Amino acid sequence: MRNKKIFMGLLFIAILAFSAVFIQLNMDVNSRAEKGEDDDADNHERIEKLLNKMTLEEKNRTAYDGRFQGTEKSDEITELIEQKHIGGVIYFDRNMKSPKQVARLSNSLQQTANQSAHSLPLMVAIDQEGGDIIRMKERVSPLPAQQDLGKNASIEDMYKVARLNGTELGSMGININFALY
Q: Which PANTHER family has this protein been placed in (predicted)?
């Protein structure tokens, strides 16, 4: 049982590390595609170089950090991004006042991450499921609870709710929602 927990933990860390790398690569690929460049051959090399530059400790730290307390970028979170190379943050009620403030915070944290040694974008996460589980409460669309959607909504309606939620969260710089959609 203990070995299974260790294995699952390491697997989770590896998935997060590779997710961070692929988010950066996807941004670069999209940028190059807009310029008409095709660099499939270069991607493998970039991944290898980036992973080879990272220590095991850095790869392990690409997980999320939920200790972030403020509504603005602090010295503590800046150090975690620049020195510890965390891969993401999880927003809670304590981090959010308004969509505009959250967007500024997300942009500020992403700018710090992009200027750090590995220049990988952060995974910015939230648990915005609807119903009783709503972290961002101000000036966002009220969402039904997941259970209510599952019982009463059509697939099309579920899609519309998920799309609305994703659009609103994306406008605040949040790129991962732990909701069950």
A: BETA-HEXOSAMINIDASE, BETA-HEXOSAMINIDASE-RELATED
